[in-house]
Amino acid sequence: MDEQKERFYEFDDYRIETVERVLRRGEVVISLQPKAVELLLVLLENHGRVVSKEDLLARVWENQFVEEANLSHTVFQLRKTLGGKNGKFIETIPKRGYRFAADVRKTFDDQTKILVGEQTVTRISVEEEIDTFQIPNSKFQTGSQNLNLKKSTVFFSIALLFAAGAALGGIVYFSRENKTSAQKFAPRFTRLTNSDKMIASTISPDGKFIAYAQNYTSGEGTLYIRQIETNREVRLLEPRESFFGTTAFSPDGAFIYYIEHKRNAAQGVLNRISIFGGQPSKILDDVNYMFGLAPDGERVAFFRNEPEEKQRSLIIATLDGSSEQEILTRPNDKLHIDLCPAWSPDGRLIAFGATEKNDSEQTKNQPPMHIFILEIATGEVKKLSREAWLGVGKMNWMPDGSGVVFLGNLPRIGVHIYFVSYPQGESKRLTNELNNFGNYGLGITADGTTMVADLWERSFQLWTTDIASNNNAEQITFGTKDGERGIASLPDGSIIYIARSGETTDLWKTGAGKTEPLTTDDFTEFGISAAPDGSFLVFSSNRSGGAHLFRMELSDLSVRQLTFGDSFDDAPEISPDGNWIIYNAGETLWKMPGAGGEAVQLTDYKALVPAFSPDGTQISAILPADKITENATLAIISGDGGGKPLKTFPVIPFWWYYRAARWTADGKAVTFRKTEKSITNLWKQDLAGGEPTPLTDFKSEFISNYIFSRDGKRLIAARGHFGDGVAMIKNFQ
Q1: Does residue 452 belong to any structural domain of this protein?
Q2: What angle separates helix 68-82 from helix 53-60, to the nearest 10 degrees?
């Protein structure tokens, strides 16, 4: 038995699985960051023994450079989550390390050893085969060819155990476990591209080729095809300044369809090109970002925005251009539809994601998205699943018609691949990678055994740089997603930032050689601003449900809610005198007293991510672009609000999420991010007019977020890696 590997550790009323890394209390799954899970497992493995801090750092953060504060914070999280006698299971042994103090039970494949002091009691367990995910007539149905044999073994074992119990007068315990890790859902990932700038991936029906694009902002705008067996990559298009939407192979695998947005074009175009290259053919004009090919290879479905009519329509068009038909039209204030439609294998149904603006299930921050099914012949629309998503990306039907595979975004989890069965509407998460997936890439083979998807890879740390000389760069944090969601500077030189670890985010403070968390909870923070005197913070969080503003007093870290209502409150900014807060409520700007109170609306038009001028009399904001090929507008607004912008500059490059345009210390210019070939630099727009000029000259790295120090001399930026690759996924059934 000593050579067997433990399957579970149990203590008090908790159980943790060593393979799946899941902690449960009874039937409830307890949410823990991945590093907290690893730390708990090391402590349980060494139950009753002191584990040094050095050993814990080496085991849990292997080959990573982290500070002891990371360990202390993770122990704090564990203690807060677990509770226990006298408030903790984990003892601190001064100057030595930590020890798990409670009784621990180890569960093996066929028996459990209960460790109580020096005594060991063995408990027999019986494992029973259980189908984990059943959908009639689906490739997702778990195979059970050995089920009868397994059950026979179980029944025979039970009979023997009862006989043994009767003979010995002992007590027999039975436990029902799930399938072994080898039998459980365990998708296998293979990265197919060496470059980290590829998007909009898809796979040929026979699984022999993949296609993907590259946007010009990431290097050269072009389209590629790769033969999987030989790993040979061929560029199909000459490089150009283009953005690309989704791609798809024709049903016979001979052609690739793709959406291209040329930089200066007014609309996207659906094109077709042979897998052997050559001159592409234009199929349709005015196609947004996503489309779905019909199984007959003769029709295409896509959504079209009609701003003058304030509506969106689902269009079905023939690929030869002979006909085009609106089969579903909805006002934007009722049903927001702008996502990838997917045809069922029999061609009768189209699945799509949409937001119901009057949905009774909507959260306080934004209406949810659902998966809908349209019956083409009748025009009837039904909601497939009651599951709500923050966003839905590209989708495909399973080839056997059992349901829809799609990219879905959930709070704290991010974008992953999900399956919703048809017609049952039961959802299942198919991927569990720490990295997220892109919205535009998803393809599946004709036999339903292999998928490809865009794999998002993000890593950001805080750096500080002298602005005048653009050198002396110094890395000041060493996490994986530091500052991406928010950074704030304090008068003493300390920095407050939002750090993400696993599926949780917290506020952290670094400075004077010390880094420590200000929050340790399961809530999510979105934006942050610090008062000029360093007395308080304002940040956006979902801790009350939805997204609202909260104020934290830095003297005692007490938190109170500032905004309420139904809007998504984000991007707070405190005025230079500390008396006012401006922020986004949805897509408009609002202003409220710094101590809280009644808020007033500053704009009746779309304006995002505000920032106060150094004297507090003006506000910079970004008026978002409607199309990927257009620049957004830098707007200067009166600090008192009201009326149209005082000045506008259409210089902000399109982005899917904007960051605040920060003022220079003298108040004469505003800075913004500009990314070219995956390298981000800051540019400066003088308010007197003229063309923007570069402020920095970095030769590498992407800047996700930034602020300036209080004296305006140093840049504090979340810099790092921002890449997209193509991953092949098997064994996802």
Answers
A1: no
A2: 90
Q: Is residue 598 part of a domain?
A: yes
Name the β-bridge partners of 496.
488, 509
The answer to whether 463 and 457 are in contact (CB under 8 A) is no
What is the pLDDT confidence band of residue 67, given thresholds at 50, 70 and 90?
Answer: low
- How do residues 567-582 score in pLDDT, each as one tens digit? 889 999 999 999 999 9
Q: pLDDT tens digits for 527-539?
A: 999 999 999 999 9
3-state secondary structure of 591: strand
Separation CA 724–CA 570 (nearest Å): 27
pTM of this prediction?
A: 0.68
Q: What is the DSSP letter of 87?
A: G
Summarize pLDDT for 342-386 with one digit per residue, the tens: 999 999 999 998 887 654 343 334 557 889 999 999 989 999 988
DSSP 3-state assignment of 659?
coil
Residue 238 maps to which CATH number?
A: 2.120.10.30
- Is 174 inside any structural domain? no
Does residue 117 register a pLDDT over 60? no
Query: Running DSSP on this structure, what letter comes out for residue 66?
Result: -
Q: Burial-class residue 534 by CB neighbours within 10 Å (0-12, 13-18, 19+).
A: middle
**Residues in CB range of 241: below 8 A, 6 or more apart:** 216, 221, 262, 263, 264
Mark whether 639 and 535 lie in a shared domain.
Answer: yes
| Per-residue pLDDT tens digits for 646-688 | 999 999 998 878 999 999 999 999 999 998 878 899 999 999 9
Q: How many domains does the chain have?
A: 4
Sign of the CA dihedral with 389 first, then 394, 397, and 398 last:
negative
Instruction: Retrieve residue 642's tokens.
Output: 């009201």
- Collapsing DSSP states into helix, strand and coil, what is residue 57? helix
Residue 271, domain member (yes or no) = yes
CA distance 261 to 282: 12
The answer for residues whose C-beta is within 8 angstroms of residue 534's C-beta and 6 or more apart is 490, 491, 492, 494, 554
Q: Give the domain range for residue 234.
A: 187-289
Are residues 58 and 193 located together in one domain of the fold?
A: no
Place of tokens 């204030």: 333
**Cα angle at 600 between 594 and 606, to 5 degrees?**
110
Q: Specify the 3-state DSSP secondary structure of 77.
A: helix
Pick from 587, 575, 584, 596: which is nearest to 531 by CA? 575
- Helices of type H across 136-210: 147-168
Q: What would the pLDDT profile of 419-465 be if each residue is shown by its tens digit?
A: 999 999 998 888 876 678 888 999 999 999 999 999 887 889 999 99
In this structure, what are the phi and psi dihedrals at residue 15, rounded to the nearest 5 degrees? -145, 135
Residue 48, Ramachandran bin (φ over 0: left; ψ between -120 and 50: alpha; else beta): left
Strand partners, 444: 451
Report the Cα 280 to chain-centroid distance in Å.
Answer: 34
CB 452 within 8 A of CB 201: yes
